[in-house]
Design goal:
Layout (H helix, E strand, L loop, with lengths): L8 H12 L4 H8 L8 H10 L3 H11 L25 H11 L13 E3 L7 H5 L8 H18 L4 E3 L29 E8 H5 L11 E6 L15 H12 L4 E4 L8 H10 L3 E5 L6 H5 E7 L6 E7 L1 H6 L5 E5 L6 H10 L5 E3 L6 E3 L5 E6 L19 H5 L3 E4 L5 H12 L3 H16 L10 H12 L4 H8 L6 H24 L13 H4 L1 H9 L2
Helix pairs in contact: 1-3, 1-4, 4-7, 5-7, 15-16, 15-17, 16-19, 17-18, 19-21
C-alpha cells in the first residue's frame, strides 16, 4: 500500500509509539522477520491503515507540526474518521470525528525502551500556520477545540517506557552464598542436604576400587527426582565414573549401542542421589530456539491487549536449576549450529549469553551435563545410526570422561530379565545365551539385540501372545531381511528342543525331542500357558 503522507521528524517518535502500541503489532513485526524497532515508517503506516487508525496518525502529525516533539500518547479505541458520503455533510462528519479524538488516553508502550523529550511547548498557532488561509473561522475553531486535549497531553513531561520481560538474572555458580530461590509460582529449587554417603553403600555395590569409598552428595529435589527402579542393575565402574564426575560438575559422554542403558543410568543416578534430571532429545529438526528460547505473545493485563514476553528454552531453563542433571540424548543427530550451543555451555565457563535480551546465564550450583549417544562424536561407521553427524572436536573435548556403556554381563542380564518379567531363571538364561550367540555372529555385527527387547519378548508372552509371535514383534520385524532370516532360523532350532522345557519345567531330555515332534509343534501354546501360570 502506498501512502501520500510522510512522518515529520518531530512526530516520528510519537507516531511509532502509537502504532506499536496497537494490538498484534509484535506479531506483525515478526511476520516481516524484523524486531519491532526495525519496522520501517511505511510499514508502520500500512499497519495503522489495516487497524483503521490513520485518523489518529494524522492527528498526531498535526499536533507535532513545528519544532516541538510531543510525548508519546497512544490510543487503543479511538474511532476511525468516517469517509464523507457527500459534500454537504462532509464538514459535519469531519467535526464529529475530530471531537472523538478527545477520548484518546495515553498507555505505556511495552515493546521496547523509548524516551521522547519535549524541547518546547506545542502551540495551536504553529499548527495552523501553513493552512489557516484556507480555513473559515468556524472550521478553525472546531478543529482547535478537537485538538485541545491532544496538545495538552503533548505538553506534558517526557515519558519513559520500558520493555516488559520476565528474566531471572544469573551469576556465576561459585559466587552463590545462599541457596537460589525459585521464581514465584515455580517448584522450590533443589538443595544439597549436606549429607554424603560412600559410593558402595549408596549404590549397594562391593567394588574394591578406591572410588567405592568416595562420598557422594545427596540432594533434596522436593519430590522432583526420578523414581528409583528396584530392578536396575548397577554397573559399579560406569556408575562410579558418573557419580564422581558429578561431584566435580564435570561433563560425561556415554557412548554405546542402542538399548545398553545409556539414558537410564543418569536417571537412576538422579533417583539414588535425589537430583532432578531433564532429558533433551535431538534430531535434525532441533532448532536453537528450542534450546535457548524466544519472545512469545501473551495476553496483557489490559483486556484485549497482547504483550511480548521472553520464555526460556529447554536448555536455559535447566541450567538455572541447582543440582540438575542435563541429559543430552543423541546430540550428534542435531545440526551443527545446535551442537555449537552445547559446545558453548559445556566449556569451563558454563554459561551462555542470550543475544536478544543480553542476559548472561550461568549454570546453577551442581548442574552437570551428560551426553548419551550411539557414537563418540566421530561419526557412525556401522551404518546403523542414520542421520548422525561428525561433531566438532572442541565439543568432544568438553567431555573429559567418555564412558563406553555396553550390554550387561550374562549374570546381570539374567538377573534383570527375571526381576522385570518373573520368568524362570533357567528360561531367562536360555534367552540371554541365545541373544549372546546372535551378537557374536560376524554377519550380524551391528545388529541391536538388547535387554529391552528381551524384556519386551517375555512380557508379550505373559500378556497372552504365542511365544513365536512375541519373538517376531520383539526381535525379528526390526531386522533387515538377511539378518532376520538368520535369527529366525537360529530361534526355531533353539526353541524346538530347549526353550519350551526350560519355561515349562518339563523333565523330558532335550535330545529325545526331535525338532518336528509334537511338543515342538505345540511350542507356542506351551510357552504361553506356562509363563502365564
Amino acid at each position: 500500500m502506498t501512502h501520500l503522507i510522510s512522518i515529520p521528524t518531530a512526530a516520528r517518535g510519537a507516531v511509532r509509539a502509537f502504532v506499536k502500541s496497537l494490538p498484534g503489532f509484535e506479531a506483525f513485526a515478526a511476520s516481516l522477520g524484523v524486531a519491532s524497532r526495525e519496522v520501517k515508517n511505511a510499514q508502520l503506516l500500512d499497519y495503522a491503515a489495516k487497524m483503521g487508525k490513520m485518523a489518529e496518525v494524522h492527528a498526531i502529525i498535526a499536533a507535532a507540526q513545528g519544532n516541538a516533539a510531543p510525548t508519546i500518547a497512544v490510543a487503543t479505541k479511538a474511532p476511525k474518521a468516517p469517509k464523507p458520503t457527500n459534500s454537504g455533510d462532509a464538514d459535519k462528519e469531519y467535526f464529529e470525528a475530530m471531537r472523538s479524538l478527545s477520548a484518546i488516553e495515553p498507555v505505556a508502550e511495552v515493546a521496547e525502551v523509548a524516551e521522547v523529550a519535549v524541547d518546547e511547548a506545542v502551540k495551536v498557532d504553529d499548527i495552523f500556520a501553513g493552512v489557516e488561509q484556507f480555513l473559515s473561522p468556524y472550521v478553525r475553531a472546531e478543529i482547535e477545540k478537537a485538538l485541545a486535549p491532544i496538545i495538552a497531553k503533548a505538553n506534558k513531561p517526557a515519558v519513559v517506557q520500558v520493555v516488559e520481560r520476565e528474566v531471572q538474572v544469573q551469576v556465576p555458580s561459585e559466587s552463590f552464598a545462599a541457596p537460589l530461590v525459585a521464581p514465584a509460582g515455580k517448584a522450590p529449587y533443589p538443595v544439597r542436604t549436606g549429607a554424603k554417603v560412600p559410593f558402595n553403600k549408596l549404590f549397594g555395590t562391593s567394588t574394591t576400587h578406591a572410588f567405592g569409598k568416595t562420598p557422594i552428595s545427596l540432594w533434596n529435589a522436593h519430590g522432583h527426582a526420578p523414581q528409583a527402579d528396584p530392578f536396575f542393575i548397577v554397573d559399579a565402574e560406569n556408575m562410579g565414573m558418573l557419580a564422581t564426575a558429578a561431584e566435580h560438575e564435570a561433563n560425561v559422554w556415554l557412548v554405546g549401542p542402542s538399548g545398553s542403558g545409556k539414558s537410564t543410568m543418569p536417571f537412576q543416578f538422579g533417583a539414588y542421589t535425589g537430583r532432578p534430571v531433564t532429558r533433551i532429545g535431538f534430531d535434525r529438526q532441533t532448532s536453537t530456539e528450542v534450546l535457548i528460547g524466544g519472545d512469545r505473545l501473551v495476553e496483557g493485563e489490559a483486556a484485549g491487549t497482547m504483550v511480548s514476553k521472553w520464555q526460556d528454552g529447554l536448555l536455559i531453563a535447566a541450567m538455572k536449576v541447582p543440582g540438575m542433571i542435563i541429559v543430552l540424548d543423541e546430540p550428534t543427530a542435531a545440526p551443527a549450529g545446535v551442537q555449537m550451543i552445547i559446545q558453548q555451555v559445556t566449556d569451563e565457563h558454563r554459561m551462555y549469553t542470550i543475544h536478544s535480551t543480553g542476559e548472561v546465564v550461568h549454570c546453577a550450583p551442581g548442574v552437570f551435563f551428560v551426553i548419551a549417544d550411539n557414537t563418540n562424536g566421530s561419526g557412525d561407521e556401522t551404518g546403523q545410526y542414520a542421520g548422525t553427524n561428525v561433531s566438532n572436536g572442541a565439543l568432544v573435548n568438553r567431555f573429559a570422561r567418555m564412558v563406553r556403556v555396553d550390554y550387561l554381563s550374562k549374570t546381570q542380564e539374567v538377573t534383570a530379565l527375571v526381576n522385570h518379567t518373573g520368568i524362570p531363571k533357567a528360561a531367562a538364561e536360555h534367552v540371554v545365551d541365545f541373544v549372546a550367540q546372535v551378537r557374536r555372529l560376524p554377519e550380524l555385527e551391528g545388529v541391536v539385540m538388547s535387554l529391552r527387547q528381551m524384556v519386551a519378548f517375555a512380557r508379550t508372552v505373559k500378556d497372552g501372545f504365542p511365544a513365536k509371535k512375541a519373538f517376531e514383534v520383539a526381535f525379528l520385524t526390526r531386522l533387515p531381511a538377511t539378518e532376520r532370516a538368520v535369527v529366525q532360523t537360529m530361534a526355531t532350532m533353539q526353541w524346538g528342543e530347549t526353550f519350551e522345557q526350560l519355561v515349562s519345567g518339563s523333565a523330558v531330555e532335550p535330545s529325545n525331542i526331535p525338532s518336528n515332534s509334537a511338543p515342538s509343534r505345540a511350542f507356542d501354546d506351551e510357552v504361553s500357558a506356562q509363563i502365564n501360570r
